[in-house]
Amino acid sequence: MTQDVKITVDTTALRHNVGVLREVVAPAETMVVVKADAYGHGAVESARAFVEAGVDWLGVADLDEALELRRAGITAPVLAWLHAPGETFASAAAHDVTPAVSDIAQLESAAAAGVRAVHLCIDTGLSRNGAVESEWPAFFRRAAELAHRLPVEGLMSHLSNTSPEEDGQQAAAFLRATGMLGDLGVEPPLRHLAASAAGLSYDGSRGTLVRFGLAAYGLSPFAGRSAAEWGLRPALTLSAPVTSTKRVPAGEGVSYGYLFRPEHDTTIAVVPVGYADGVDRAASDRASVSIGQRTYRVRGRIAMNALVIDVGDDPVEVGDDVVLFGDPSRGHQSAADWAAASGGITYETVACLSGALTRRYL
Ligand SMILES: Cc1ncc(COP(=O)(O)O)c(C=O)c1O
User: N6-(pyridoxal phosphate)lysine: which positions carry it (predicted)?
Assistant: First the structure.
């Protein structure tokens, strides 16, 4: 049944979004983050659309993701920032992938491998990867020593998006790092710590490059604020056909655990998509879907390969196309609606979609 579940990606929307984001942050450059299979949209096809639309950089978490892009013939600059223990960076050098390095060991390996350039990754308060402030003096000194054969093209950090004050403290730490590097004669042209949230809501932390993930897919990083506010368009639609319908008498239990018992006789329709496809089970009995311009509730528990919707007395038929989420301007539920229904975040709604699902590109 997996083949009946369709992910449709509108590459026109992806290209349009890059145009919007480039204008928003100009004169800063733009990177689009295509990690996690381009947030479920399909890495190679999405990356091609972003590059065609003029994005300056592609960003990925690891070198495997970078190499997938290179194998597909994508030659745009690619930055990768999460590395396996003991990474040699030989593949980065061979395929012209730029690593962001988080410590002296990675810096030395990148230099030994002969990569074209590095970005230095620093921790300004997220407490994830990146060198912490006490490590900066030695890290930066070694980068300055190696700079004649390993150019420091960028300085990067990542915000926690906790509050404007806390993000401001990170931006201040980033400036301290820039100053410290400058004192050593290292002035990386690309200074980047903003992702979608800080990139869209100008807060002084944009630097010279913004790494857009979610916003490039036309989705908003802010709960309660639609990406349409910035003129961004969601690109991904998840849909599946009705496979059967049946009349259910009032009081009859529906799906595992009988979470739902209709108050009145009703018709339920079975849709062959479930949590094995990446649809969050936590949205059981809460999310909605659409058929044409009509909206219906998901009822009962979402199962591994199927969910059930309550269509009342409407003339819904086998084969009717059920849109779980897509573009609200076309009457669909949004990925954010599904995230709200499951108590999750929009990132998960798209990024957790199974790689086994067929993706069709418009
Ligand atoms: C280092 C880094 N930069 C940028 C992004 C893009 O973030 P967003 O999708 O919020 O724009 C991510 C995503 O998690 C990231 O890990």
Answer: 35
pLDDT tens per residue, range 247-257: 999 999 999 99
CA of residue 193 to ligand 1 center, whole Å? 9
pLDDT beyond 70 at 267 = yes
| Bridge partner residues of 291 (DSSP) | 294
- For residues 66 and 34, give the distance between their C-alpha atoms in angstroms, rounded to a whole number: 9
Q: Which domains does the chain have, with CATH numbers?
A: 11-218 (3.20.20.10), 236-361 (2.40.37.10)
The rounded distance, in Å, linking the Cα atoms of 139 and 135 is 6
Q: 329 CA to middle of ligand 1, Å?
A: 26
> Is 361 marked active-site?
no
Query: Is 256 a catalytic site residue?
Result: yes
Query: β-pairing, 266-271 with 307-312?
Result: antiparallel
What letters, b where the CB count within 10 A reaches 16 and e where it falls short, cover 245-275? beebeeeeebbeeeebebeeebbbbbbbbbb
- pLDDT-based confidence at 161, cuts 50/70/90? confident
Residue 299 annotated as lining a ligand binding site: no
pLDDT of residue 203: 62
What is the layout of strands, in order, in the sheet containing 152-156? 190-192, 152-156, 118-121, 98-101, 78-80, 57-60, 29-33, 209-212
Catalytic choice (6, 35, 296, 361):
35
Q: Would you say 209 and 192 are in contact if contact means Cβ atoms under 8 Å apart?
A: yes
Angle at 56 between CA 212 and CA 140, to 5 degrees: 80
